[in-house]
Design goal:
Layout: E1 5-16, H1 20-28, E2 42-49, E3 57-64, E4 67-79, E5 83-89, E6 95-102, E7 109-120, H2 122-153
Antiparallel strand pairs: 1-7, 2-3, 3-4, 4-5, 5-6, 6-7
Helix pairs in contact: 1-2
Length: 163
């Protein structure tokens, strides 16, 4: 019997109290900004190449379901300043995107984190999707809360305040 993979997406969205350019800068800065928005489940973030946006490669470790997992990601910017994508290579082959849109006021943003994953089909796949969706949405809510705090005060690596 063969099993085929089923593709599904886990999404979380929040309003952030900082302008889009500053919010995006935090997300894209894998040396100083992004590590500060990762929930405690993420135990390390190592920059292997680059460090800011397009061309960056990272290795992330996290503890989930009592296990330590490691992911490698290559970063691209299909819409620089608005959409950043982490393509996880290796075992997971998932894709996470961060989309930053203007909020209702000039000093606000709306950020969407979306991850596209593959799971088994059938009953075991349904359990896998349920558990993964529940866990990732909890982590993304934490990450968006941290992003809101960090982005309000964030300055670029050269010390400039971003508007």
């Amino acid at each position: 019997m063969t099993t085929s993979n089923q593709i599904y997406t886990v999404t979380a969205r929040a309003q952030i109290g900082a302008p889009p350019a500053r919010v995006y800068a935090v997300i894209a800065d894998y040396r100083n900004g992004h590590p500060r928005i990762l929930p405690k489940a993420f135990t390390s973030l190592l920059v292997e190449k680059g460090g800011v946006g397009e061309g960056t490669s990272t290795r992330v470790s996290m503890r989930v379901f009592g296990r330590r997992m490691e992911f490698r990601a290559d970063i691209s910017e299909p819409e620089p300043g608005r959409v950043l994508v982490e393509r996880h290579v290796g075992a997971s082959d998932s894709v996470t995107s961060f989309t930053v849109d203007p909020g209702s006021r000039k000093d606000e943003s709306v950020v969407t984190i979306a991850t596209e994953l593959a799971s088994r089909s059938g009953f075991l796949g349904a359990i896998e999707r349920f558990m993964t969706r529940k866990t990732l949405q909890r982590l993304y809510r934490q990450e968006l809360g941290l992003l809101d705090s960090v982005a309000r005060e964030y300055r670029s690596p050269d010390g400039r305040s971003l508007q």
